[in-house]
Write a structure and sequence with these properties.
Family: Belongs to the short-chain dehydrogenases/reductases (SDR) family.
CATH superfamily of the largest domain: NAD(P)-binding Rossmann-like Domain
Number of helices: 12
Distance between the termini: 82 Å
Strand order of the largest sheet: 3-2-1-4-5-6-7
GO molecular function, one term: 3-oxoacyl-[acyl-carrier-protein] reductase (NADPH) activity
Shape: elongated
CATH topology of the largest domain: Rossmann fold
Keywords: NADP, Oxidoreductase
Catalytic activity: a (3R)-hydroxyacyl-[ACP] + NADP(+) = a 3-oxoacyl-[ACP] + NADPH + H(+)
Bound molecules: NADP nicotinamide-adenine-dinucleotide phosphate
CATH class of the largest domain: Alpha Beta
Strand content: 5-15%
Order of helices and strands: HHHHEHEHEHEHEHHEHHE
Structural class: alpha/beta
Radius of gyration: 30 Å
Pfam families: adh_short_C2 (PF13561)
Largest sheet: 7 strands, parallel
CATH architecture of the largest domain: 3-Layer(aba) Sandwich
Length: about 325
């Protein structure tokens, strides 16, 4: 009996978490054996210890799961169900980004500039809705050289799909291409102002219209498409370069003002992206500027935009994606 008791004490003491978690035949068998030896108390202790061990493991595990989930929601919040307004959505970068967001379950307000691109917008809308369950998409036309059109665009999107959680302000026009050696006299102040209004002014207005809802939700993303031209002058003209660099000041102000409200503001500054109307046929001289030895792909810009949408700690940044053309950081 003593030997049996000593064995029972050892069993209770040494019951491992693995044994308890398995809660298998071995624990049941040991408890039965103890009872058979008249060691009822030890049998009960054994069962209690098994239950306590398992319960504690479950508690620790569920705590760890909760902690993991909350960490992940900070690092990579689910974009499922978010509404993204993408301006210039019919262009190369816009389309690639719309597909990337839709694959993550986002709904997309597909902006295009005119009737000429309506068919393209309609085809994209059908494709986006097939990419993931629950994705909604609709086309919205607006020539964004006008503030009034920008207001109407925002109102139509809100009415048709709801308030955007993410604004990807990506539309852009070049104006006259005079190149880095061009004559400044060829770009009138009126043209300069028109390009600025289209690339910067309406981008600002859309951000202004989207912010109140984002602020109310304590979550929002504002992402502008700038250009490497904002940092190095580029290959198009002064109107284009300065309209893009103006977006950087906007990124800085928005970030400082609204990051505490869960709204991040960033810009992506690409260079020489193929499959876009803007860079349809670059010369060899232009291509030779790219150390990587090729033009960028719209998907390579889309992946950065997705990063800026998912990451809640990255704000106030201009991410340069230019195949190594510049040394970056401006
Ligand atoms: N491609 C490059 O190498 C490159 C380099 C640096 C920066 N970017 C910037 O990337 C952004 C996206 O351009 P992308 O490369 O995808 O070129 P893209 O294929 O030429 O697309 C341009 C987009 O802007 C829209 N757009 C043109 N005029 C507009 C207007 N008046 N109002 C509103 N929207 C207008 C176009 O709409 P429609 O299709 O309806 O005309 C189209 O969706 C632009 O901001 C551009 O400045 C491009």
């Amino acid at each position: 009996m003593d030997e049996c008791r000593m064995r029972a004490v050892e069993l209770v003491k040494n019951l491992s978490l693995a044994d308890a978690t398995r809660c298998d035949h071995r624990v049941v068998f040991l408890a039965e054996e103890l009872k058979a030896c008249g060691l009822i108390l030890n049998a009960v202790l054994l069962e209690m210890r098994a239950t306590a061990l398992v319960a504690n493991t479950k508690k620790v595990a569920s705590h760890q799961i909760l902690q993991y989930q909350s960490n992940m929601s900070v690092i990579e919040p689910s974009l499922q169900g978010k509404l993204v307004l993408i301006t210039g959505c019919t262009g190369g970068i816009g389309q690639a980004t719309a597909r990337a967001f839709a694959r993550h379950g986002c709904s997309i307000a597909v902006h295009h500039s005119s009737q000429k691109s309506k068919a393209k917008a309609d085809v994209l809308v059908s494709e986006l809705m097939s990419l993931a369950p629950g994705v909604r998409a609709a086309p919205f036309e607006a020539d964004l050289s006008s503030y009034e059109n920008a207001r109407t665009l925002h109102a139509h999107v809100v009415k048709g799909l709801g308030h955007p959680d993410i604004l990807f302000s990506n539309h852009g026009v070049t104006g006259p291409v005079i190149g880095p050696e061009g004559d400044i006299g060829k770009v009138s102040a009126e043209v300069f102002e028109e390009i600025w209004r289209t690339n910067t002014g309406t981008a600002y207005l859309l951000a202004q219209l989207c912010v109140p809802y984002m602020e109310s939700k304590k979550w929002g993303r504002i992402i502008f498409t700038s250009s490497v031209a904002a940092g190095n002058g580029g290959i198009l003209g002064p109107q284009y370069a300065s309209s893009k660099s103006a977006l950087h000041g906007l990124v800085h102000w928005l970030s400082l003002r609204y990051s505490k409200d869960g709204i991040t503001a960033n810009a992506i500054a690409p260079a020489l992206i193929e499959d876009t109307a803007m860079m349809s046929n670059p010369s060899d001289a232009v291509r030779s500027k790219i150390p990587i030895g090729r033009l960028g792909k719209p998907d390579e810009i889309a992946s950065i935009v997705l990063l800026l949408a998912t990451n809640g700690y990255m704000t106030n940044k201009v991410i340069v994606a230019d195949g190594g053309w510049t040394i970056g950081g401006f």
